[in-house]
Amino acid sequence: MVLATAAGTGAARAEGRPFLAYHASWYEVRTDDPALTTIARLPPYITHLALSFARPDLTYKGGLDLDGTGLQYPYSGTVLKGAIAALKVRVPQMKVLVSVGGWNYPAWDRFDAGALARLVKDLGADGVDMDYETHHPDCLRTRAGRIACPGDALSVRVVEEIRRALPRPYVVSVAGWSVGAYGEGAFANARPQGGYAGVTLALLRAPVAQEIDLVSIMSYDAGPAFRPDEAFRAYRVHWKGPLALGVQVLPGTSGGPRFTLDYTARTLARVMDDPLAGAMLYALRLEPEGVTSPDNPDYRSLAVAICVTLGLGDCTARMP
To answer: GH18 domain spans which residues (predicted)?
Structure first.
């Protein structure tokens, strides 16, 4: 019932809604045939596919050699390039991005935009997803009431360097921290508080934000007080383009709610009055422990729930 209602709400506004899905390279199937990869067989309702994760300090000199890039696909770069090409034949409108960063790759001070751009171009990808995460955000509110964080200038510089290396029409998307737009104005006291509150604000209000095409919110694993729809409204104050709420396959460790099918549909339905609202899924190929069910869904069923709630169409297309 929830999914049917949500689909009715969003179907008329489905055009322009983003659905970005991360692809966990470390769980991809092993094959030498590009057509047998899960990448080549993805359904058409995904709008952006983020290959996860490249290192900010990646080493890549060319030749489709993935060693040193951080990507953990169990096949060669040649097979990965072929998989992207096969996907593009089937779903030419889907944007394939190389996602750089993530929690395990925080070496942003050694970011190599040139190497990343060469990798994107050699793979035949469409751009970059920047997942800028820091283990020590240490954000504070100044006397003027604005949030300032030690990594503000670096996060802005990284996007500037990406855009210089990959000008439009290459796509640049940004993954924002759950509470990354909190700490100021109407959201000064939004919960939860802490050193991450406002960590994305400097980037969102920098001139280079005009060079960003999509923002997704890691709206999960932020504790029981966190409300994804409130985070969406906080981000919307600073970012007017396509904005995706994150959905997590594996349960978090912070005590926050589990993304069941019902919770996913209800959460997304709360922002469907915004015509550029969408969803992000973390991540394809991840599987929860135990028997899958509506209360313990896998990435396949969550992807369908997102598709139906956003009213994207072709939601019965098989997810590998």
So the answer is: 21-222
- Per the listing, tokens 């067989």 go with 41
- Tell me: pLDDT of 100 over 80: yes
Beta carbons of 122 and 62 less than 8 angstroms apart: yes
Query: Any idea where the domains of the chain sit in the sequence?
Result: 2-310
Q: Are 124 and 87 in contact (CB under 8 A)?
A: no
Domain 2-310 sits in CATH 3.30.70.20? no
Mean pLDDT to the nearest integer, 220-241: 97
Long-range contacts of 103-109 (CB under 8 A, 24+ apart): 103/133, 103/135, 104/53, 105/53, 105/54, 105/55, 105/56, 105/57, 105/70, 106/56, 106/133, 106/134, 106/135, 107/55, 107/56, 107/57, 108/56, 108/132, 108/134, 108/151, 108/154, 108/155, 108/158, 109/154
| pTM score | 0.94
Residue 7: pLDDT above 90?
no
